């Protein structure tokens, strides 16, 4: 079965998730405490033997919970094989291709709903069920001579049906032996009894459970087809040494912890390591006195372990060796395998870096547990499977998840853009917390979620942009790139380009790229330049920007590619200084009149700004706001003013911007265009000299 839709209600912080479509490999993305873990744990309620704790019920829905509420429900799609299995057992029932499974706060067991398919709830004596089998036995015993019948204990058939073949065989064998002993002189009775026992319909594998068609179908689905949710959250670390004597005693005691004086492994991780390498403690014991056989055994196990770990190990491949040491110790030894085949850095696992040990341990534990037979076709729920991993290793884990999606459905929670690889609605779900109501919401249409919640998704979606930076063919044939220091600079350049509508100095022939911050300008510009882009940098006139310029020149940039803010031959401090001060102050006063009306804000004049005596308008306004910190003005947010001006330009409502401001921006665009022409002429001359023209 595969989960196709689910809904969670009244569970912890989730009032109602709504009905959510989900794919075979689905990622839940959300900020901390948004409810991602809660969703995964709520789905575990759909396991057949799970129980509901009253502590998990949503306190704020106490009134609703007085009635029966479906806490967790899922609509499951059956495979053609599963549909056929049901059809073979119940020929008279319509084909069942999907089933809704749910658990409520009032019923101890999960329940099943087959939708529009009508299945009879009337008692049906012809069903080959345990209940009808018991009734058949009781009817037969009524015909047995009384002196035999009163000595038979039939109470065993009134108990719950046996759950396994072994339970059934034990029950029947005990009763059969007793019956044969008491009926040894009643040949006819024994023959009739043996006929009942040997009938193929009365074997455990053929018996259903239930006295009506509906009950029998439900019980068959519960016993044979019910999906299993397996929740992973604790990824244990392997340290590298295994004491076989201690491990054997732990296995016999059936506990999980190995109590060592040194940092040895937990029994669970040791079991996983042995499972992946197909190493058996009994085989080691049997070969203890044959060193050559032990060497062969451990070599084979090491090769197998290496082969199974490397497909999801990113970076240089590793070689894993299990070495049998004196004192009945197995050591885990790791080596780096390089592209040329050389092997270096051979040493014990516990001497490696913590990040390496964590990565290795996660892959061993997770790969082993997902390879086990009992996890096949299970629905795997993973809580942050790639935490603490480097992005390249996260991609390795993502490859592992993709490979699992063939035999298992995988649902996982993550914060990492490197763990998102399918942006199809249903395969990517956003979980968002309403802070005021403390309720989780799940977005199937994740683009409607909060921008901060979407951050890792947007980073992931931008992977193509990163690829374009490092693709030399794209760079060589692309438009020039202009790196600017802030998002505000980029907004102004595009907005005034539209405002001026001058094709001779338009920004259209350029790719304007906003750096994350001033410190990002230099490396970002170098990345673009190294990959074939004609790269230019637009800088303010601060000391920090001048240092950036010097560093870029030291990295093969020319002075032509450095463009500093200037107007009428004089340097200016920011792009805001290209605007006439009255124009800019109009935007400031309009923005802050509303924001600070209750804080005694009054319209600021150009005289107020100029009186501060700083070089640029932003520095002066920062100083004014600093003076009013005690009035709760907080800090001056220049980006808010940028948004106001650009929005007014977009709406065609920018009449407050004077012709002098327009001319000032035209001078900036002419400066940029002139520098690009100069650079292209220099580059053309350089190419001509290379070919001797």
Question: What brief labels describe this structure?
Answer:
6-stranded mixed beta sheet, 6-stranded antiparallel beta sheet, single chain, 693 residues, alpha/beta, 42% helix, 24 helices, elongated, 22 strands
Topology of this protein?
Blueprint (H helix, E strand, L loop, with lengths): L1 E10 L2 E3 L3 E2 L3 E5 L6 H8 L26 E8 L2 H10 L8 E7 L6 E3 L16 H12 L4 H4 L15 H18 L4 H12 L14 H13 L3 E4 L8 E3 H10 L13 H11 L3 H6 L4 H19 L8 E8 L3 E9 L5 E6 L5 H18 L7 E5 L7 H14 L4 E6 L13 E7 L4 E5 L11 H7 L1 H8 L1 H5 L4 E4 L2 H14 L10 E4 L3 H13 L4 E5 L3 H12 L7 E3 L1 E2 L2 E2 L9 H15 L10 H5 L6 H11 L10 H14 L7 H32 L3
Parallel strand pairs: 4-14, 4-15, 8-13, 13-14, 17-18, 17-19, 19-20
Antiparallel strand pairs: 1-2, 1-3, 1-5, 5-6, 6-7, 9-11, 10-11, 11-12, 15-16, 21-22
Helix pairs in contact: 9-11, 9-12, 12-13, 17-23, 18-19, 20-23
The CA-CA distance between the termini, in Å, is 72 Å
Structural class: alpha/beta
Radius of gyration over alpha carbons? 37 Å
Helix content: 40-55%
Mean of residue pLDDT values:
86
Based on Cα principal axes, name the global outline. Answer: elongated
The largest β sheet comes out as: 6 strands, antiparallel
Instruction: Say how many strands there are.
Output: 22
Number of helices: 24
Low confidence ranges: 255-265
Strand content: 15-25%
